[in-house]
UniProtKB/TrEMBL annotation:
This is tRNA-guanine(15) transglycosylase. Residues 13-341 form the tRNA-guanine(15) transglycosylase-like domain. One of its GO terms (biological process) is tRNA wobble guanine modification. Substrate binds at D129, A197. Exchanges the guanine residue with 7-cyano-7-deazaguanine (preQ0) at position 15 in the dihydrouridine loop (D-loop) of archaeal tRNAs. It holds the Pfam family TGT. PANTHER family: QUEUINE TRNA-RIBOSYLTRANSFERASE. Its EC number is 2.4.2.48. It comes from Haloglomus irregulare. The gene is tgtA. Its cofactor is Zn(2+). The lineage of its organism: Archaea, Methanobacteriati, Methanobacteriota, Stenosarchaea group, Halobacteria. Zn(2+) binds at C280, C282, C285. Binds 1 zinc ion per subunit.
Length: 506
């Protein structure tokens, strides 16, 4: 199959893209959410899902294959007719059932199940991979990864017409195995690359590990491959998953949670019985209110909750797309990270890879918002520090100041945490137009000090003085010994650069 995915805009590792699905005759705008459809339990009709924003959905080919009620209908009518859905339809192979019930209960042949997926009109099919759980030892993870790769290679040799092929990337929680699996999967010529076996991590709120698994897989896959994060169905995780470079998410959560009377929000999950007021303006909430939903019979309540859950989920996908479009995806991630400590863990894990995010990050965006200590670790800050060596410094004695200019120096540069120093002429260029709080946190000051260090090391012949607003010793101590420091006074004026008062580093 020729390349079917095009990236149109980047924001860090997040991207707006388009995935051509030739068998369905549609182009899917990514990031995109795929609702999971169980043929036996259709809480929300697929046609209604399309009305809510679904461009594609995912269903289980193995369940259809084993179903007495739907197998023959699927073969005769085709999936699109069976589900009354005009978008793209993805089929899974039954690997999840295999991981839950084992070989003794679930016997699936890759050739047979892929041929079945093709015969029922699937637009994107999946071979039988082995989802290795997080607790598996390395030997098991490597062995099962090898089996998965063999099955992907077998699948690519089949004649499957225009049906696209998923190539799941396994490797458990071993980053090097995930990276190798990504490279091997990409080399097969498959089309879409699901990061597999992360459901146990997501179910246990181990978002940092899920981020590490995704980024490791992407290192092997390269920047051009479309990536599906299996099981990322809660809307509070979409921004984080997109920022880690994932393009497709699938959600069974909308229905599973509704079955238990749980109400999704972008900040978490609420039990319907605990709600006096509904925080969502969707049609379901506007029509019923909390009391009205609670008063419905069990079947009607489940359906209405499922539809609400989809409304919230698709709204968040649109919000993520717009954030990438305007270049403030990480601001959205940061907002979501304040909803749950484990999402914050995931965000911090993402920022551990700021160097990788910076490679595809757009150089110009809307204003940078410094919102917390994590903002100091963003790729824009790293990029600025790397570029300091290329900026010309005029004069032998230069003031780097959080306050005013001073004519006693040859030149005065501005200092704005977390970026650090820059020529005043660049004050209106991104990201130095950043919106920063007046009460600067220590993490931002330490980041700014790293910028001072980078500038000083690139210009050893220049005598630099840093005029600061009472930075902590943790920020000042790592500065080069020849960088003098002085405290700014209430009037923002800096004393003569030869004065001893308030000056260190001599």
């Amino acid at each position: 199959m020729t390349d079917v995915f095009e990236v149109r805009r980047w924001d860090g590792a997040g991207r707006l893209g388009s995935l051509d699905v030739p068998r369905a005759g549609v182009t899917v705008e990514t990031p995109a959410l795929m609702p999971v459809v169980n043929p036996h339990i259709r809480t929300v009709a697929p046609a209604r899902m399309a009305d809510l924003g679904a461009q594609l959905l995912i269903t289980n080919g193995y369940i259809l294959y084993e179903s007495e009620d739907y197998r023959e209908r699927a073969l005769e009518e085709g999936l699109h007719e069976l589900y009354d859905f005009d978008g793209a339809i993805v089929t899974d192979s039954g690997s999840f059932q295999l991981s839950v019930y084992g070989d003794d209960e679930v016997a699936i042949d890759t050739r047979e199940i892929l041929r079945f997926q093709y015969d029922i009109g699937s637009d994107i099919g999946t071979p039988v991979d082995i989802p290795t759980p997080p607790e598996a030892d390395r030997e098991r993870a490597a062995a099962e990864l090898a089996t998965t790769q063999e099955r992907i290679e077998l699948a690519t040799d089949l004649e499957l017409g225009e049906m696209l092929l998923n190539a799941p990337v396994q490797g458990s929680t071993y980053p090097d195995l995930r990276e190798r699996a990504g490279a091997d999967a990409r080399a097969t010529g498959a089309d879409v690359f699901p990061v597999g076996a992360v459901v146990p991590l997501l179910n246990d709120y181990r978002y940092a590990e899920a981020v590490e698994a995704s980024l490791a897989a992407k290192r092997g896959l390269g920047p051009a491959a479309p990536v599906h994060l299996f099981g990322a169905g809660h809307p509070m995780t979409f921004a984080l998953a997109a920022a880690a470079g994932c393009d497709l998410f699938d959600s069974a959560a909308y229905a599973l949670y509704a079955r238990d009377d749980r109400y999704l929000t972008v900040r978490g999950t609420e039990h319907l019985a605990d709600l006096d007021h509904l925080p969502c303006p969707c049609p379901v909430c506007a029509e019923h209110g909390a009391e009205g939903l609670q008063a419905l019979d069990e079947t009607a309540r489940e359906r209405q909750l499922a539809e609400h859950n989809l409304h919230v989920s698709f709204a968040e996908v649109r919000r993520v797309r717009q954030a990438i479009r305007t270049g403030d995806l990480l601001e959205l991630v940061e907002a979501r990270a304040r909803s749950h400590p484990t999402v914050l863990d995931g965000y911090r894990a993402l920022l551990d890879h700021a160097d990788a995010l910076e490679r595809t990050d757009a150089a110009g965006k809307d204003a940078f918002f410094h919102l917390s200590a994590e903002s100091a670790r963003r790729p824009e800050v790293r990029r600025h520090h790397e570029r300091l060596a290329a900026l010309p410094v005029e004069g032998e004695e230069v003031l780097l100041s959080e306050g005013d200019t001073n004519d006693s120096y040859d030149e005065t540069w501005r200092v704005v945490p977390p970026f650090g120093p820059f020529p005043r002429a660049l004050s209106e260029t991104y990201p130095l137009t950043a919106e920063v709080p007046q009460r600067t946190d220590h993490a931002a000051q330490r980041a700014a000090a790293r910028g001072v260090t980078a500038l000083a090391e690139a210009n050893p012949e220049v005598a630099f003085t840093l005029a600061h607003w009472d930075w902590p010793e943790s920020a000042l101590a790592p500065l080069p010994e020849d960088v003098r420091t002085t405290l700014l006074g209430p009037d923002e004026a800096v004393g003569d650069h030869g004065a001893e008062d308030g000056t260190t580093g001599e």
